[in-house]
């Protein structure tokens, strides 16, 4: 499964990049995120509860960041296990482009899933993934706006 999109965030690139690397901001914005632990600048551990169609699962996973292109771009890869519900692995490439007082965030992501989740059908998985991504970026943009006002 592949996803890509772009969103305009009302903040300068440096602030957007910093927020994307702040576990507290990410935990607030990731749908279903119960815990996000930063082990290093390149390694995170997450616990997320997701409901996909009739299947609800708690995923535990690890995320690795490659920040060699920072602050213009970075990539991440991750894998998670949802027990009987299945497993997921994937990655994303993110680019940040400053346009005046705003930042355009573009991403391209790929994911593979297995187990019960994979049996739900690619259309349901794809639509759920799009909704979750949209929810994350809407929350992230709102968080950046709230931070700017504060």
From TrEMBL:
Residues 69-91 are annotated as: Disordered. InterPro entries: CO_DH_gsu, START-like_dom_sf. This is Carbon monoxide dehydrogenase subunit G. Residues 79-89 have a biased composition (Gly residues). Transmembrane segments: none annotated. It comes from the Bacteria.
């Amino acid at each position: 499964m592949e996803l890509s999109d772009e969103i305009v965030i009302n903040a300068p690139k440096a602030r957007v990049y910093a927020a994307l690397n702040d576990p507290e901001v990410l935990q607030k914005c990731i749908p279903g995120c119960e815990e996000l632990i930063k082990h290093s600048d390149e390694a995170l551990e997450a616990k997320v509860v997701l409901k996909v169609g009739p299947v609800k699962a708690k995923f535990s996973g690890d995320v690795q960041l490659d920040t060699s292109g920072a602050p213009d771009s970075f990539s991440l890869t991750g894998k998670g296990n949802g027990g009987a519900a299945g497993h997921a692995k994937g990655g994303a490439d993110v680019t940040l482009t400053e346009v005046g007082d705003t930042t355009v965030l573009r991403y391209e992501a790929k994911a593979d899933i297995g187990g019960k989740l994979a049996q739900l059908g690619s259309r349901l998985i794809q639509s759920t993934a799009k909704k979750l991504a949209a929810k994350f970026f809407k929350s992230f943009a709102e968080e950046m706006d709230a931070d700017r006002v504060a």
